[in-house]
Amino acid sequence: MSRPRLMSRLPRPRLLLGSCAAGLVVALAAAVWLPGRSAPPPRGEVSPSPPGAGPSETPAREQRDWRAGSWYRYALRGSYLVRFRSARPDSQPPPPLLFQFEGDWRVGVCSASQERAEVQVSLSPTRFSLEAAGQQTLAPEVHRNLLEALATPFFVTFDRAGAARLIHFERQVDLLTQGLLRSLVAATQVVLPPSPHASWEASEEDASGHYLARYQLQPALQLEKSKLHYTHLITDQGLQPVDASFRVQVHSRTQVTLAREDLWPRSLRGTETLEVDSGPDMLIPSSESQVELSLMERGTDGALTTAFHERQPSLLTLPIANPQPLEDMDPLVHERQLLAGRSLEDFIKALHSLPTEKRDRDQARAQALEGMHALFILEPAAARQIPALLRTRVPPALSSPFIGALSAASTPEAIQALCQIVGDSALEHEVRLDATGALGVVSAPTQEGLATLRELTRGTDVTLRETALLGLGTSAMNLREGDEHLAQSLIQELSTTLAEATTPAEKTIALMALGNTRAPSVLPTLQRHLSSRDAEVRAITTEALRFMPAPQADTLLSERLMTDESPDVRHAAVFAAGFRPFEPLLPAFQHVLQNDNSMAVRSSLIQVLSSQMNTSPAARRLLRWSSEHDPEEDIRRGATVLLLGATP
């Protein structure tokens, strides 16, 4: 089937209309304008330079629990409204399209490595409709075929941070269904940083291209995600940087609540408006979309562990940001597209001539970071030039993209360059500190990198020493899958550092580093320090319990909540509880609300409970008690407001 006439009118480079909503335009238009036909399966042609996954601002880390065999069943609901307008008075735009759906969305983990995870996804639609100008447009046969195609299981490759990178379909799945499912996957991806932060940015992709997303961490493991801007768009000439020839306006807000026990989404609600203008004579599509997920059930299924391996030879593989299939699973094809033939010198020039307007400046920096990450993967030796460049040709204010790209690449050459930057006393302190933090979060730690961090922990510079110590803890976490022996060796070193600490400050940083390891073996050490006479030591130790994969951590947190004399420690326990399974802590929560004399502690707990009130009757009961009985009017009023906004 030929493409709709809309596509033939686009200039070169022609924009391949995409995104979580607008990406459906071409496929939906085909269903509307040709209601008696369904799209044939793609032929499998490979474009000369298909685009692919870009690095996130924060390298991928094991945050979410990608446990093979685990599955999650969500209630899914959403809609896409797509409109067209034309700047030409003699042009009649197509009618608006409204697509609505409901059903079960089941995600099962097939396998996971240090860098990626393969999951199986299946949609069981209970409602599916498509209207044009308010009229149902799908012929009955087409509707039945679409329902059957939508229910065909498919697979997605995520990086370990949670960004969707590749999607794998059975070859008989038609183009329309591919577009719908790719859009749903893109709309529901959640990317986490290597360690908790108040906010972070990540480079993600959807059917339109690559964009920069910002996340804000709120109380009780609630996140708010927004798209900042697109850095690259998909055209018929491949992945192209956004320039003046494209005008893309996007406004999005996605609210996510994570499950404490595994950091999988418990609920997700996203809204987005998008408009893409690729020229004065072109039709301009705009869209409004809504997507909601609510966790209904979870479990395990051993058959998942072989599902992807068994089906992979017969699957059609697509990058999330490209409708062209990849017949060969060559991961470097993504980097080649991102690099687009540019050299290190090109990136240096680009960073020296950044735009003055903040939004354009941030976009240019993000594009440079993505491109340099690709360069360091494709040409590892290029990383060796960076230490000298930072000394001579790159001012300190522009050093961050170079350091970030080295950390994201995590090749031996990139790690070696970071080590040289860290040890170069001719560089400004902030540059060396940035490189130390980047060295501590590389995805594949090397002996050279670990030796550099160890040396810093013995130095006299306090900030470098503490940053390096925290980095050793994170390195131990990242090594646990690939080199358990080396990981345990690092944990032992950190335990020794803690034992030799003589001041509360030294103890707290060592405890934080041990918490970064997330190793069950450190729990007895943490438990001993919960009885410290120093409240700050107890508070830091309490916070370190938040990621401990052991039920005993819940018991220890309950004890801190109910018995610790310091409100700072109890407040730290409420913070840590926001990352833990909910039910084991309910008795302690009730005790705090009814007996704690600190308004700050009770108020903080109210925020934790608010994240669970739509799915937990117990949370609503506790909030209702506080709305009626808390001694402070502000807390009673706050709990009442939260309850009024709860979903019945």
Any key phrases for this structure?
648 residues; alpha+beta; 14-stranded antiparallel sheet; 14 strands; 23% strand; disordered N terminus
Q: What structural category arises from helix and sheet content?
A: alpha+beta
Number of strands: 14
Number of helices: 24
Sheet having the most strands: 14 strands, antiparallel
What is the end-to-end distance?
A: 47 Å
Average pLDDT score: 82
Task: Characterise this structure.
The structure is a single chain. By secondary structure, the protein is α+β, with helices and mostly antiparallel strands. Helices cover 42% and strands 23% of the residues. The chain has helices at residues 5-8, 25-33, 140-150, 175-187, 304-311, 332-339, 344-352, 358-378, 386-392, 399-409, 412-422, 429-440, 447-457, 462-479, 484-500, 504-517, 523-529, 535-544, 552-563, 567-577, 586-595, 599-610, 617-629, 633-644; strands at residues 70-86, 97-112, 116-132, 135-136, 154-159, 164-170, 199-206, 209-218, 222-235, 238-241, 247-258, 265-277, 283-300, 315-319. Strands 1, 2, 3, 4, 5, 6, 7, 8, 9, 10, 11, 12, 13 and 14 form a 14-stranded antiparallel β-sheet that branches. 48% of the residues are buried.
Short description:
This protein has 648 residues and is α+β, with helices and mostly antiparallel strands. Helix content is 42%, strand content 23%.
